[in-house]
Amino acid sequence: MDPLVPRYGAGSLADVVPSLLAGLDVPGMVDVLGLAGPSRVCVLLVDGLGWRLLREHEEDAPFLASLAGPPITAGFPSTTATSLAALGTGVPTGEHGLVGYSFAEGGEMVNALRWSRHGASAHVDLRDVLVPEEVQPRRTVFEAATDAGVAVRLVLPRDQKGSGLTRAVLRGGRFQGVLGFGDLVARVAEAMRSADRVLCYAYHADLDALGHVYGPGSEAWRWQLRFVDRLAAAVADGLPAGGSLVVTADHGMVVADDRVDFDTDDVLREGVRALGGEARVRHVYTSEAEPVRDRWVSRLGGRAWIASRAEAVAAGWFGPRVDDHVLPRIGDLVVAAKGSLAVVRSTAEPGLGTFIGHHGSLTEEEQHIPVLHTIG
Length: 376
What we know:
Low-confidence stretches: none
CATH architecture of the largest domain: 3-Layer(aba) Sandwich
Structural class: alpha/beta
CATH topology of the largest domain: Alkaline Phosphatase, subunit A
Shape: globular
Largest sheet: 6 strands, mixed
CATH class of the largest domain: Alpha Beta
Number of domains: 2
Number of strands: 19
Strand order of the largest sheet: 7-6-8-1-9-19
Radius of gyration: 20 Å
Mean pLDDT: 96
Number of helices: 15
Helix content: 25-40%
CATH superfamily of the largest domain: Alkaline Phosphatase, subunit A
């Protein structure tokens, strides 16, 4: 079984918004995915809506299932912070630099979703220590669109306003906070009629949350998928004539019940000075990479792809290029799970360790995501 390396520049999440903006005459944008056309477009990102999961549960999502289209790849790691960075910057991981759910930067282990210290002190806000605009200094696609005269609207949960991740990768548009399905649909409809050239980005998180807690494909997850399908249909019904809706996702998900606990495993812990990432993909920081690698290989066997930083970079996991300032954020070893493996941490990450559903790795289930589009 070979890892599914993301198709950066030829069919990845980073290509979605540039493809749409090419049709809005934004300089420097290329329509890799064949999406250019309408002058008013909405991107609805459904967290956790993997392509295979959608195809396996088409009866629960008739509207989404009716929108044909092959899958694209999420990017690596296939996790929310990294994927939102790809969507918001239009470049692969090695260039935007958010290399995982958690990673080492500036002497800290940062939780990129919360922009806080990862682990036991997870509520320590790092926005003043690790300034988001400096950690991710590239201009976003939303800034490029705004500079080109496009009306950019970000229809996002209210509590994401001013967050570290929003500042790092979604800056450049007018933020419109929402509380639920109802005002998301209303705000998107309002945004799509706000100008002749519009890019609206909307985000929904709950499918991912229920996948983590109950498992993808569970009864609770399937009910949420039905609600998401109605949400997407309602957004489509509210499109102005000629307006376009594109539905995509940040990753898929697997049930990970083959658990190894790093915090209680002496073999895995020996020689490791810090551990980042999440259960399905780990950044292993160590000053003795080869002995540590040997121990992880002996412990995990063929249940994971285990690569040195140099090997992972050369294999293109993080994209065709990795900027110099990004390299130290990648672990000395990168461990990407196969099958149902999860490397959990019962002490440092007690909440995450209880999850049934996980994502992040290079399997087809986690990498393949939909890019579905319809025109009003």
